[in-house]
Amino acid sequence: MVLKKAAPFRMFDFGFIILDHTTNKTNLIMEKSIEQLNLMFNELQKNDLKTFEEVKEMRKIMGVYLIYSHKGEILYIGSTNNFFVSFGTDLKYASTHTLINKLIKASMHETAAEVRDYFTNHYKYKVYVCDNKREAEALEHLAIWILNP
Questions:
Q1: Could you read off the pLDDT of 55-83 as tens digits, one per residue?
Q2: Which of 26, 81, 98, 109 is the 20 to 30 Å CA partner of 117?
Q3: Could you tell me which of 58, 40, 70 has the C-alpha nearest to residue 141?
Q4: Per-residue confidence at 1, pLDDT binned at 50, 70, 90?
C-alpha cells in the first residue's frame, strides 16, 4: 500500500485550514487574505476599551466595533462607514438600531431610553479601523462567527 504524502497546511487562530499549494495563485491570494483577516481580528480583540464619547468622535472612519456590557460581555458586533453617524444619530431612534430592540426583547432593559443611557454611560467599545467596506464586512462577519454574541 502506497500512502500519499499529506499536503502541508497552515492552521489559523480562528480555525481555518488552508492547504499550501504554492503553484496555485488563487490559494496564495486566499491564504494572504486570511492571514491579514486573522491579524485584524487579533488586533480588534487586543484594542483598548473606549467610551461612547471616544467612539462617537471618530468621524468619517470606517471599521468594526464590539460593544461590551457593564459586566464585560460582548453584546453586539457591528461595522460602519462612519462611527459618528452610527453612534451619534442611529441610537436616537430605536427602530434604526437592531441592538436597542434586541436588548429590550431580552429583558436586559425596559425602554429605548434606558438602552441609550447604557450605551452612553455604561457600555464600552473596542474598535478596529478598516481601509475599506469589504475589509470591514469581512472582519465583522468573522468576529460574529467566532465570538457569537
A1: 878 878 889 999 998 889 998 898 888 77
A2: 81
A3: 40
A4: very low
Identify the DSSP state of 48: P
Asked if 79 and 139 count as a contact pair (C-beta separation under 8 A), the reply is: yes
- Gap between the terminal Cα atoms of the chain: 48
Q: What confidence tens digit (pLDDT) does each residue in 97-137 have? A: 567 777 777 777 878 788 788 888 899 999 999 999 999 99
Q: How many residues does the chain have?
A: 149
Look up residue 131 and give its three cell numbers. 481601509
Q: Which of 80, 51, 70 is nearest to 139 (CA)?
A: 80
Q: Give dist(CA 29, CA 27) in Å, integer.
A: 5
May I ask the CATH class of domain 48-147? alpha beta
Supply the DSSP string of 100-142, one letter for each residue: HHHHHHTTS-SSHHHHHHHHHHT-EEEEEE-SSHHHHHHHHHH
Instruction: State the amino acid at position 125 in one-letter form.
Output: Y
